[in-house]
Amino acid sequence: MDTISFATITELQEKLAQKKISHEELVDYFLRRIDIFEPRIDSLLETFDKKSVLPKSAPTGSLAGIPGVIKDNICMEGRVASCASRMLEHFVAPTDATAIKRLKSQGALLLGRANMDEFAMGSTTESSVYKKTKNPWDVTRIPGGSSGGSAAAVSAGLVPWALGSDTGGSVRQPAALCGIVGIKPTYGLISRYGLISYASSLDQIGVLTRSVKDNALILSAIAGQDAKDSSSLPIEQKKYAQHLDGVLPTGIKIGVLDLSIEGQGVDPEIASAVENAIKVLENLGGTIKRIALPTFDYSAAAYFILSRAEAASNLARFDGVRYGMRNKKATTLTQMYRSTRHDGFGDEVRSRIIVGNYVLSSGHSGEFYENAKKVQRLMRCEITDTFKNVDVIIMPTHSTPAFKLGTYDASKLQIDLQDYFTCPVNITGVPAISVPCGITKNNLPIGFQIIGPHLSEELLYKVAYAFEHITPWHTMRPPAF
């Protein structure tokens, strides 16, 4: 294995500083690697040409010359932002998302647009209208979703980092299935300006990398308050990687949700790997406390209702009037609305809009939407109380290893249950990081997540790094890549 394909950001920075490689050579290297391996996994919708990637002068900043890719629902000025949908196939973003602007200001180089589930709706990256992304560990299996393109590109060594978005687990779940690190930060820590919305109260830009420290370096560049996003928190930018020493905080109390390990539906290999991870943290000095979170049993149902309600509201703007696709053959306004939205959206998006409009309707909103909001309030109170007794919570990221491509149409319920362990984090707004913790007998990655209270990203990175520091899982690579 060469020393660049799976090098960390820090290692690449050292090579650049020592002039062992130039920024231009590094871009050339990864673009060549994309040319060779991308056809095997279909992780990117577009690869940018070298001339447009490299700045006119040498890049400067904390990420100077470090290449990555961006999920196709995050706007880059002058680039298409299609959300993997026909509806926005020719939409060119007029401005950079705040996260993109901050990456550019730190010298990061953006190599392409990553594939995704259409409008971020899905857990397999199979609802994209352009291509189905494969898992680098087994190209007959899904990479997870909706940020599957971002996760697969990082896992295969096409880039050292990528941005995704996480509405119900769409960064953490593909990170776990592809054997990499993925974080969903506290809601409001990263500006959503320039992120094309799925469910505004749940969406959060997240980071995918192959190591915990790399993840912290990217988050450091993009987190912080933004005047263009009223939901962003009044938090100054921090250096999240500076206190990573491989040591757990003294006296840290780690909550473990018994149901998450012993409940039906969790693959035995995943249960075993997560229990082993808990033992590692206990050996490092953590105090393990078994806890119960009764309201979490209702989280998947609440997420199903809330996300679809907000999706119906957010996607109402795509009607062929201002931007995006328009059926020009329509002869009346009503016909134009209907045909544009039917032809522009795929089956998954249309079904979620229909459900969203149903749960918001005057006859059913009290039964569904308002009750889901009550559950959300109960969950937020419960997790706040829980963090009075423990510092972090451990649970699996996913219940089964990556399954075969094509399962999406065969079992919609199985797909929806992929959110079971991840969506509570979005509903409550707290941060969580998924870290590799094992490999199945079929050579498929396993991940577990560490969940913390609001704005505890520094603590999550410290715990995750301590685990990573003495375990081998983050060093394992897809054999074919």
Q: How does the SSE layout of this entry go?
A:
Elements: H1 9-17, H2 23-41, E1 44-47, H3 50-53, E2 67-71, H4 98-105, E3 109-114, H5 148-155, E4 161-165, H6 172-177, E5 181-184, E6 205-209, H7 212-222, E7 253-257, H8 258-262, H9 268-283, E8 287-291, H10 299-314, H11 333-344, H12 347-360, H13 369-386, E9 392-396, H14 407-410, H15 412-416, H16 423-428, E10 432-439, E11 445-451, H17 457-469
Parallel strand pairs: 2-3, 2-4, 7-8, 7-9
Antiparallel strand pairs: 1-3, 4-6, 5-6, 5-10, 9-11, 10-11
Helix pairs in contact: 10-12, 10-13
Q: Can you write the helix and strand succession as a string?
A: HHEHEHEHEHEEHEHHEHHHHEHHHEEH
Named at the architecture level, the CATH assignment is Alpha-Beta Complex
- The stretches of 5 or more residues where confidence is low (pLDDT under 50) are none
Question: What shape does the CA trace take?
Answer: globular
- For CATH, the homologous superfamily is named as Amidase signature (AS) domain
Number of helices: 17
**What is the CATH class?**
Alpha Beta
Largest sheet: 11 strands, mixed
Strand order of the largest sheet: 1-3-2-4-6-5-10-11-9-7-8
Give the termini distance in whole angstroms: 9 Å
CATH topology: Amidase signature (AS) enzymes
Plain-language structure description:
- The longest helix is centred in the first third of the chain and has 19 residues, at 23-41.
- With 481 residues, the chain is of the alpha/beta class.
- Strands 1-3-2-4-6-5-10-11-9-7-8 form an 11-stranded mixed sheet, with helices on both faces.
- The protein is built from 17 helices and 11 strands.
- It has one domain (1-481): Amidase signature (AS) domain (Amidase signature (AS) enzymes, Alpha-Beta Complex).
